[in-house]
Amino acid sequence: MIELIRKIYLIGYIVSNLFAVALLIIAWKRPIMARLIFSIIFLGACATNWTIAVNRPEAYLDFGDMTIFSWYREFIAGWFSEHILLTVGLIASVQGIIGISLLLNGWIYKISVVGGILFLLAIIPLVITSAFPGSIIMTIAMMMIFNKGHNLILEHSRFKKNSIS
Q: Terminus-to-terminus CA distance in the chain, angstroms?
């Protein structure tokens, strides 16, 4: 059974990293599409984390066993274990705000990109469960869309050409 779990994690790990590389290429070539994908990712993470936090909060304790950092493991086994719903609920809510804000313009959009970058950097200590180095690759992709993907998706030039003046 342990071998099966390891294989499942390995497959997920490889797929996640391939997805991160693909997202980096999309961010370089089509930043507005990358922005939409990141929005979907953060909104999906929000829904997933809220669902798990409410229905099976103890599932988050497994992350402590998968980190290589003792301080992270101690945090998960300690304070976090007694405040899972509060912590994951806050994280999930922020993920939702980032996901929605990525669809907006101006300073709200830029703050959401910075928030996404900080989130991706914060999960690096989870190593395997954050699909490291995929989390770093996705951070770079987020940095790429900071200035390139700044137009609201519906204001993209392709839509402007078809609008009535």
A: 64
